[in-house]
Design a protein that fits this description.
Elements: H1 2-31, E1 56-57, E2 60-61, H2 74-86, E3 105-109, H3 113-121, H4 127-133, E4 141-145, H5 153-157
Parallel strand pairs: 3-4
Antiparallel strand pairs: 1-2
């Protein structure tokens, strides 16, 4: 019993020391002024490239498309609409066109943990949740989160990786 009393007193003393350290640290932290983020550092005065109009960036014309344009060139728009309306179609499990009950159009994400976070796993405001709730979404469209959380970028470039 004497050894047990000694062990208990020793453990109580150790816990008391940790409690004292914790309270001291808490006191030091609460005595310091609260550290607020300096949001003035988030804007360094650089405009997004599409907003530079007829300007240039490092000597190159800006815009999302050639000749300072931020709108799709008409031929580009027509080609994209043609692909969307005439070439994308529901396929069955064998890869054959099937506009019946077995066909689906699949939109698949591929990436690492940040991809799966944005795509599907961070709650109700993720891409998949928002897209699935959109009434204008094609009922044949199936959105699949194929990204893998917890994988390092080096795994994606290693041929022998299981990623």
């Amino acid at each position: 019993m004497n050894g047990l009393n000694y062990a208990m007193k020793s453990r109580i003393r150790q816990c008391s020391e940790w409690l004292l350290y914790g309270l001291t640290l808490l006191g030091l932290c609460s005595a310091a002024a609260p550290a607020w983020a300096d949001c003035s550092l988030t804007n360094v005065g650089i405009k997004p490239l599409p907003e530079l109009g007829l300007g240039s960036y490092k000597g190159y014309p800006v815009g999302l498309y050639p000749n300072y344009a931020n709108n799709r060139p008409p031929a580009h728009l027509a080609a994209g609409l043609n692909i969307a309306t005439n070439q994308i179609q529901p396929l069955n499990g064998m890869g054959d066109p099937d506009s019946g009950t077995n066909g689906a159009i699949v939109l698949l994400s591929i990436g690492m943990s940040n991809t799966t976070d944005e795509w599907a796993s961070l709650g109700t405001s993720t891409f998949k949740a928002l897209a699935d709730a959109d009434p204008s979404k094609n009922p044949k469209l199936v959105i699949v989160d194929g990204a893998q959380g917890g994988q390092a970028s080096t795994d994606w470039t290693n041929f022998n990786s299981t990623t």
